[in-house]
Amino acid sequence: MSKYQSNVDMVSKEDLLSDVGMKRRSKYFMFTLTTLSTLGGFLFGYDTGVVSGAMLLINKDFDVSPVWHELIVSSTIGAALVFSLVGGWFSDRYGRRTAILVSGVIFTLGGIVMGAAPSKEVLLVGRIIIGIGVGFESMSVPVYIAECSESSQRGMLVTAYQLFITFGLVAASVVAGLFSTAFEGWRYMLGLAAVPSLVQFIGFCLMPESPRWLASQKKYAEAVKVLTTFRGSTSVAEQELSAIRATIEEKDREMEEQIALNGGSSLFMQVFKSPGVRRALLIGFCLQAFQQLSGINTVMYYSASIIRMSGVRDESLAIWISAGVAAVNCGATFIGLFLVDRVGRRKLVLLSYIGVIVSLALLGIGFHMMEADSPLVTSVIQDDKCGVTRTCGECISVPEGCGFCFVKSQNGTILEGSCWKMDPDTSRPLDGQCSDNIDLMTKYPANIDWANGWCPSQYYWLPILAMTVYLVSFAPGMGPMPWTINSEIYPLWARGFCTSITTSASWFGNLIISASFLSLLEALGKEGAFFLYVGIALVGFTILFSLLPETKGRTLEEMESLFLGPWFVCCRGRRSGSHLGSNNVQYVHIRGLNRASPRSSTRPGEQGVGGYNSDDSDN
Fold first, then answer.
1. Which residue stretches belong to region Disordered (predicted)?
2. 264 and 413 share a domain?
3. Final residue of a structural domain among 451, 473, 501
4. Same domain for 406 and 515?
5. Strands laid side by side in the 448-451 sheet
6. CA dihedral 72, 75, 76, 80 (to 10 degrees)
7. φ, ψ (nearest 5 deg) of residue 475
8. Nearest to 303 by CA among 283, 320, 280
9. Using a CB cutoff of 8 Å and minimum separation of 24, what contacts does 149-152 make?
10. Looking at the structure, do residues 131 and 254 belong to the same domain, yes or no?
11. Total structural domains in the chain?
12. d(CA 550, CA 342)
């Protein structure tokens, strides 16, 4: 072997070791970036889950009226709705990283204000501050992760956002259980939200800006450096930036033509004049809206009531069982994390809808059977709103507050039942056989019981089973996929605006369900409310089955082409886009048209698709 050949081999080995090291470091960097980003999802889930447990204690300390209770809980949703719209403009103007940093500061401030609140008014201010942070974070984090990820891993990494939301829900249940008996335990529950938000803020001070946002600002040198860090290869980063730059420059040319012809138009009008973006926005809006309108928050809200219906009396035990329910939701999300880049987004969404529809129907059937099985009021002693009820179900539904006192035989049969008014402070009967009836207690010392908010039934297991099936079905598909799909289907120039619209749709749906649930129960009954959710979920399934294409394996720059052509997925042939976007084709924008061309094989130092090379300077 010649000396020259030996030197070449040695250089090649050094280059190879260098490439391996860069790729290894890029994996660690992406793991750190995703973990820090998804801490925002953890905060989202934690705040959503902890407020219900905290309100049990806050009601006692601040003597909160029902109106104030609704204000404290719903103010966060309202603030998140408004500021998710503001967050889209902010992240487009100042960057995704900056928006996440701002949300971290806001979350930390809100946690401190809530934990130290001396009055319900200050607590309300803290809840609004938290809502502002949630609005910024829920819009910017999925977009940031999607813009930094490779197409082969993008689904899994963005799905991690939903996974951390479920982590937050589990953590909230555990924290609520730990501090439920502590003095002013609600301060710890709410104030602890400041800890992960502070960690996220400090960590993100060391994170880079999204490379696609940098490219949109014509900062190409910075963008290629960031992409090199993420991909572990300069050549791959340059080739990816070439495609990004080609898309940006084509859109710039189209906008210049529009300005020359029409004098320009707002971003709103540009979105709705673009057929592909308009269609993507409709699908993204439906994904987020039907996710909420199909009753997820109702099921989570009703989980404690369903558990109580099974006979759990102790509030602390019910809180810990609720933690188990949240853990089921969290565990099932791992299914989506594992399958999203293997099975695809579309299949996960549609299969998830099928499971949700079946489980919602089971919930309705279960409540109907429990109502039909509700024990009768056999002893009518008092002539008031409690005394005139006919069944246990009617008794516990009286707005003035009544409970069902019953005597069981050893085989579980109800021997006698009566309805009595409750003491609002102790939730115990003011009179009757369950209060202080010595004779009856002597006759039935072990078989007399008091039901407040639940009724004995042999079908108690059916709603619990249906709720579990619902969460297992919802968590892999309907839970994470709206966030994943919405973070990837819009072109760079419209991504912030469109994502803010669809995120606000999620919060608006949340607000509608939260505000209408009690009215639905009164108007339709428990079973009627859940059958209504079945109908809504069926509408959502039909729309998404017809319109939602598969986005797995496509780059962000290929997405706009995917939404051109036939509206209905069933009408798409192989040439209309349903199978395009694989590793064998790449989309090049030519004066507003989308054409497929062979994948570029650009080498380091050669000019790429968009006319980019590493020597270009920012402009």
1. 595-619
2. no
3. 451
4. no
5. 414-421, 402-408, 448-451
6. 180
7. -60, -40
8. 320
9. 149/30, 150/230, 150/231, 151/553, 151/554, 151/555, 151/556, 152/341, 152/553
10. yes
11. 2
12. 12
Same domain, yes or no, for 415 and 533? no
* Main-chain phi, psi angles of 422, to 5 degrees: -100, 155
Instruction: Tell me the pairing of strands 448-451 and 402-408.
Output: antiparallel
Residue 329: name the closest of 180, 190, 168, 463 by CA.
Answer: 168
Q: What single letter denotes the amino acid at residue 45?
A: G
Look at residue 588 and give its three-state secondary structure. Answer: strand
Chain-centroid distance, C-alpha 171: 16
Residue 132 placed within a domain: yes
Q: Cβ distance 386 to 400 under 8 Å? A: yes
Phi, psi for 209 (deg, rounded to 5): -75, 160
Q: CA distances (Å), 93 to each of 89, 103, 200, 495, 497, in order?
A: 6, 15, 22, 12, 11
How far apart, in whole angstroms, are the C-alpha atoms of residue 253 and residue 237? 24
Is the residue at 593 inside a domain?
no
Helices (H) and strands (E) in the chain, counts: 22, 5
380 and 360 within one domain = no
- Tokens standing for residue 178: 């730990």
- The reply to whether 277 falls in a domain is yes
pLDDT of 304: 61
Q: Summarize pLDDT for 116-126 with one digit per residue, the tens.
A: 999 889 999 99
Q: Which of 427, 451, 475 is the last residue of a domain?
A: 451
| pLDDT tens digits, 165-185 | 889 888 888 888 788 778 888
Q: Are residues 359 and 389 in the same domain?
A: no
Q: What pLDDT sits at residue 177?
A: 79
| 605 touches 614 (CB < 8 A) | yes
Inside any domain, residue 584: no
Longest CA span, the chain: 110
Per-residue DSSP letters for 487-515?
TTSS-HHHHHHHHHHHHHHHHHHHHHHHH
Q: What share of the chain is helix, strand, coil (3-state, %, to 5)?
A: 70, 5, 25
- Segments forming the whole domain that contains residue 132: 1-368+460-561
Terminal CA-CA length for the chain? 49
What b/e readout covers 347-385, taking b as 16+ CB neighbours within 10 angstroms?
A: ebbbbbbebbbbbbbbbbbbbbbbbebbbebebeebeee
